[in-house]
Write a structure and sequence with these properties.
Elements: H1 3-11, H2 15-22, H3 26-34, H4 41-51, H5 55-59, H6 63-66
Helix pairs in contact: 2-3
Organism: marine sediment metagenome
Protein name: HTH cro/C1-type domain-containing protein
Keywords: DNA-binding
């Protein structure tokens, strides 16, 4: 489970809401949540602000070190 997945689950936030707020597809958010892809830096910053968590909290995972940015 990724940190993003944990945050969304804990707060009861739906992926579609994130997608709409960031202007990305729900599929993109799903890939981020599952750890299949990592968001581009601009989306990491927007996610950080939207979820009111630090960037470090979002990216401090092994999954982010080896995956392609999308």
């Amino acid at each position: 489970m990724t940190k993003l997945s944990e945050i969304l689950k804990k707060r009861g936030i739906k992926q579609i809401w994130i997608a709409e707020k960031l202007g990305v597809s729900e599929t993109a958010v799903s890939h981020w949540v599952k750890g299949k892809h990592i968001p581009q830096p601009k989306y990491i910053l927007k996610l950080s602000k939207l979820l009111e968590v630090s960037i470090e909290e979002l990216i401090n995972e092994k999954i982010f070190s080896n995956k392609k940015r999308r």
